[in-house]
Amino acid sequence: MWSLIEAAGWPIWPLIVASVIAVALIIERLWSLRTGAVAPPGMVDRVLADYRSTGATPELLAKTAAQGPLGRILAAGLANAKAPRPVMKEAIEEVGRVVTHDLDRFLTTLGTIAAMAPLLGLLGTVIGMIEIFGSQTSSGSNPIQLAHGISIALYNTAMGIIVAVPALIFYRHFRAKVDAFVVEMEQQAIKLVDLAHGERT
Question: At 32, is the secondary structure helix, strand, or coil?
Fold first, then answer.
């Protein structure tokens, strides 16, 4: 591994740092964007059952808000359950915007790495080409410098693609997953509003 890094030269280090950051972000988002952590199935029914038995007590609101992003939205709705429907919806929408922002956390960074990695690989390719041209002298070419320049160019190009492709795949996957969660939470919030105001049974 170290011999590969030496052959690729110093341009490989930004790509290594980018790859480590990308892996860390992917693992964090895989853990944070689990369905059970964001919008557990049947949560609205359980929350409404507790609400009907105890009312919107501070304990119920705290317990609901602690159950993840959907819980925070439902807690905001329950806190305004006795208010008119537009007020309740506005409270839910305000918290929903914050929750959506939290779900998008780190995705911009992951997308930036996906777009930046090929350019870093291209930078390494250019530096390798400079090494190749520098190997030419009036007395002939320096084979060691020529080989080093070729290895810098090829290794950095390959590493840029290796980092960019998984980062782009996971960026698009997480973006689609967040969009799906937003739609699901919106539907659950509307259901809560309807049930709280007796418009749905």
Answer: helix
Q: Provide the whole-model pTM.
A: 0.84
Q: How many residues does the chain have?
A: 201
- Contact at 8 Å (CB) between 163 and 19? yes
Q: Say how many C-beta atoms besides its own lie within 10 A of residue 122's C-beta.
A: 15
Sign of CA dihedral 98, 104, 106, 108: negative
Q: Which amino acid is present at 43?
A: M
Q: What burial class does residue 73 get, using C-beta atoms within 10 Å of its C-beta: 0-12 exposed, 13-18 middle, 19+ buried?
A: buried
Joined together, the tokens standing for residue 21 give 């950051």
Phi, psi of 161 (to 5 degrees): -70, -40
Q: Which helix (H) or strand (E) holds 200?
A: none
Find all residues with CB under 8 Å of 44, minimum gap 6, and list them: 74, 188, 191, 192, 195
> pLDDT (tens digit, 9 = 90+) per residue, 99-121?
999 999 999 999 999 999 999 99
CB 35 within 8 A of CB 180: no
